[in-house]
Amino acid sequence: MNSHQDYILQVRGLTKTFAGVVALDNVQLNIRKGEVHALMGENGAGKSTLMKLLIGLLKPDSGEISFEGTDLTTSHVREVMKRGISMIHQEMQVVPELTVAQNIFLGREANGKLFSWLNDRNLTERAGQLLKQMGVNIRPDSQMKYLSVAQMQMVEIAKAISNNARVIIMDEPTSALSDKEVATLFGLISDLKQKGVAIIYISHKMEEIFTIADTITVLRDGKYMATKPAAEFDIHTLITMMVGREIDTLFPVSTTRPGKEVLSVRQLCRKGKFSDISFDVYEGEILGIAGLMGAGRTEVASAIYGLDPADSGELYIKGEKVSINAPQDAIGHGIGYVSEDRKKFGFIPHLSVRENITLASLPKYAKGGVVQAKSESETANVMMADLKIKASSSAQPVKQLSGGNQQKVVIGKILLSSPSIIILDEPTRGIDIGAKAEIYKLINQLKETGTAIILISSELPELLGMSDRILVLAKGHQTAVLSAREATQETIMHYAMEV
Amino acid sequence: MEKDSTLIKGGDYGGIRIRDAGKYVLLIVLVAICIALAMTTPRFFTVQNLMIIVTQVSINALLAFGVTFVIITGGIDLSIGSIVAVTGVVAASFAHPDTYPVIVPIGVGLLAGLLFGAFNGFVVTRTKVPPFIVTLGTMTIGRGLALILSKGRPVSNLSDSFNFIGGGKVLGVPTLIIILVVFFVVCTVILKKTVIGRYMYAVGGNEQAAKASGIQLSTVKMIVYTLCGGLAALAGILLTSRITTGQPNAGAGFELDAIAAAIIGGTSTAGGAGTMTGTLLGALLIGVISNGLDLLNVTSYYQQVVMGIIIIGAVVLDSLKHTKNG
Q1: Contact check, Cβ <8 Å, B195/A145
Q2: Partner-chain contact B7 A81, CB within 8 Å
Q3: Which residue, among B73, B74, B70, B18, has the nearest Cα to B320 in the 3D structure?
Q4: Interface predicted TM-score of the whole assembly (ipTM), two decimals
Q5: How confident is the model over A70-103, as pLDDT tens digits?
Q6: CB of A326 within 8 Å of any CB in chain B?
Q7: What number does CATH give the domain A261-497?
Q8: Is residue B213 within 8 Å of residue B98, measured between CB atoms?
């Protein structure tokens, strides 16, 4: 039905190996003008390698990339950009000390000639016009570091447009955006589509893919699986193709009944963040906390954990009143916390799996201040096996692991201190679906051993699938506690939007 | 298509003002110290003494300009003191009376410095060895080379025309001051007005972003180290001319003063930020304080302690400034 001329970008037989490991194996990709083409696959499926090859950051072992009839297979980044392929990286690739305009035109100031003059006034003017055309109100002369993530992303898109990009690659563009900002981004994407710009869209968020994608290509283990119109997929078939097995049991069934009350929170307040929060969590129970961005979910969690203590209110653990003013107090009372920002709070990247797992309970494995290597590594190995952490050995640095395995290391570290209450803040953010299923299983195992669990999540299916009860917050107030039976996406959203 | 208004906020101009304010703080401190010194000792605020200060500062400032380029890209160059010695000895060897015209020792000296710097750049870009280690190594190599080339003895008996470059006066103004002003302008223009200058900030500010923008990291670094070597050579030639001898032991420890000037001037050791004006003010501050302490008969032992405190103080101030903007 479609002739080859429709394709703006064609990739054929692309293969790339790293030190003997095949990252991409004979992959194809065909992108049409003006479409949003989702590229799907688990972490490690080869999406980032493919993108790096497309934009010239890597050179393929074999295969070819042709863009508007020109061969780009061995072109360098600058050449590829000039031709009209741009990428918006997940970790924003900006220079914080330079201005918006200077970032937009970085690398192309005077056609990139190293020894020529700069004309900043001209750059600022052009950047201003461009941002205005996009309908985004950002000052071209403000320094990049004062922008929000969403604004930086708009600047990156402006950079791509100014580059006359006809293909824009977006890698997890919404991972740090609020719902409102996502809407703005999608508006901008549809403007771009109308101008004939093709978008290659990478995201782990399923709903997003079905909202925005016209076509979906699936990769698995470095191999090409299929390309089909998005309408021919549903969530189930898409996941099955990505994972290679059926994950209908994404959320495990639990048979435990909640036991005795473990944690009681009464009238917890922190000025400007949340007020009058009261709830109980029982042994072997998962209490979900739902709410929109800024509803105060993480703030409540960090108050319970003592990171940012509450101004007033009471905490009871197993019926006894406790005061928690610092994380040490919380740990002493058997509370464990898995932060939403695992890169920042979760692990130390250069240290090994073993060292990270035992970090919080090292004194247990030391005699007279000397770490007992044997007992330490035995413990770490047991934990690795229990959590099915995929690493070459317990000596592998955590920074080399996939996101899902990093998260398991963080959870392992918390488990080692055998807490009776665990707070999980966005435990599956940025993790692929296979690893998600394993983390859910793990949470359930904890539940079955009688641990009280507080699960904070922005993904409603996750909350609905896992929780026994769901506490809903809106703008720092508690608007509902729903039982698993009452809770649906609609009821949760209803209470979450309540003022 | 309706665009979200939440994106509108934060087009905030404050940052630029705050950065400028940082520069003014240094200027105000400098002026305040000058006034304090002028009030305590009558010998400070004389044309003659001020000329002495600027003359003394000029060699450190030239080195500091070079190292500012390097630090902005996120690197460091510890070898500049040794480059001063090598280039001084090399230039002196070609500067004996009635041998070559004065342009030859200058040219050969500069060439030696540029090559030395290029070698630093080559090793830094071709290997994954951190610049600190690379230039620590070349610092020692350079010192050795200077001793080898001079056979361990000072190279003296230099021509009058060579001695004029760093020791003469034009219309009553020491040549060193003229050269300092010229190179201050040149370096500022390179940093602020040229593409390569922009790339220095980009490479130091976010190497990945610079790479993704199609900037050749190795080219930029190569240029920066070469430039730094060239400026160190200039300092070496001027010093040799001023003391009328090529000293193989000259310039030892100069790298630390130069780095101190850059850091006091607000150059970020993490890369991505810094200005030549700041570096010049930093060098002047160091010069004024040590001159003032001399005039007040404070022994040089105490001067070192004071200087150390100032360096740490400047960085603490800078970090406070940053956390405030968070």
Answers
A1: no
A2: no
A3: B18
A4: 0.73
A5: 898 888 888 898 899 999 987 778 899 899 999 9
A6: no
A7: 3.40.50.300
A8: no
